[in-house]
Amino acid sequence: MATIKLEIVSPDKVVYAADIEMLIVRSTAGELGILPHHAPLVTGLIPHAMRVKIDGAEKMVAVGGGFMEVQPDKISVLASVAELPEDIDADRAQKAFNRAKKRIDDYRAGGEDINIIRAEAALKRAAARLTALGKHGE
Ligand code: ATP
């Protein structure tokens, strides 16, 4: 089966690099499926669990937002944070999810003023981690 190189880089390391069959991402313009020989493209990514098809199986990688550059033979993801499922602390992610959700719910119920954009981004990062662990339906 045809493959395309994928490299996912966070500020401190290469999180994942492999020859893959397909990448499904949530971009700022909607969901995109990238196959080998895709047309060149640059887009922003929102926090979500990316789906990597490799060797006939699917692997998840949580990203906290960033950019993706596609060339016909290579996909480069520059992420603000990225984790493989085996590196995700489920308890921490669940606590972050609950904390962000409560802040947003309290704010919507007329509570104290908060940075809602920041709270929603934290909720999305936590949801991405839980989804990558198969614990949450985004
Ligand atoms: P928290 O509120 O739990 O700190 P956060 O979404 O604010 O979560 P980030 O700012 O996205 O955290 O990430 C800070 C650092 O902590 C990054 O290196 C990220 O990979 C790591 N990290 C955050 N949450 C987890 C987790 N649940 N499991 C493993 N690493 C995590």
Can you give a write-up of this model?
- The protein has 138 residues and is of the alpha+beta class.
- The chain has helices spanning 90-108, 116-132; strands at residues 4-9, 14-20, 22-27, 30-34, 41-45, 48-54, 57-63, 66-71, 74-79, 82-83.
- It folds into 2 domains: 4-83, ATP Synthase, domain 1 (Sandwich); 88-132, Up-down Bundle (Single alpha-helices involved in coiled-coils or other helix-helix interfaces), CATH 1.20.5.
- The strands form 2 sheets. It has a 5-stranded mixed beta sheet, with no helix packed on it. A 5-stranded antiparallel beta sheet has the order 4-3-6-7-10.
- Strand 3 and strand 4 (30-34) form a beta hairpin.
- The radius of gyration is 16 Å and the shape is elongated.
- The mean pLDDT is 96.
User: Can you count the beta strands?
Assistant: 10
Strand and helix order: EEEEEEEEEEHH
How far apart lie the N and C ends? 30 Å
Number of helices: 2
CATH superfamily of the largest domain: F0F1 ATP synthase delta/epsilon subunit, N-terminal
